[in-house]
Amino acid sequence: MKIMVSACLTGENCKYNGGNNRNEKVLALLAGNEVIAVCPEVMGGLPTPRVPSELRDGIVMSRDGRNVDAQFRAGAQKCLEIALREKPDLIILQSRSPSCGVKQRYDGSFSGKLTDGPGVTAELLIGHGFHVVDLEDIR
Ligand code: SF4
User: From the alpha carbon of 6, which atom of ligand 1 is closest?
Assistant: First the structure.
């Protein structure tokens, strides 16, 4: 099976704070499969570490008030291009991220509150018919 995955879940230090979200359940699931690790925010040209960002009214803004929507959407587009080329059977994405969140994301207030709905990369991949699963649904 071919699996696309948020790179931070595999242990890559691409998270906004320079760390990762290494997840042993995900790593066990990836073992023996063909793995395509992607980080849309890095692929969109953002540095690591970076100021955290959230989606508000359909636009991705950084906590310090910059409009970073273009970088987020460029990264999402690159992930889509890879997915269209590689045709992964399954895509596993990190929960609650403004890029990768599938079921929920932070609500744009930078207060830790969540709202229902995907991040920009997850939304694009789901919209193109890929089988996209939130980390929270990996048992
Ligand atoms: S954009 Fe996705 S892959 Fe990159 S650090 Fe955030 S959650 Fe992980």
Answer: 3
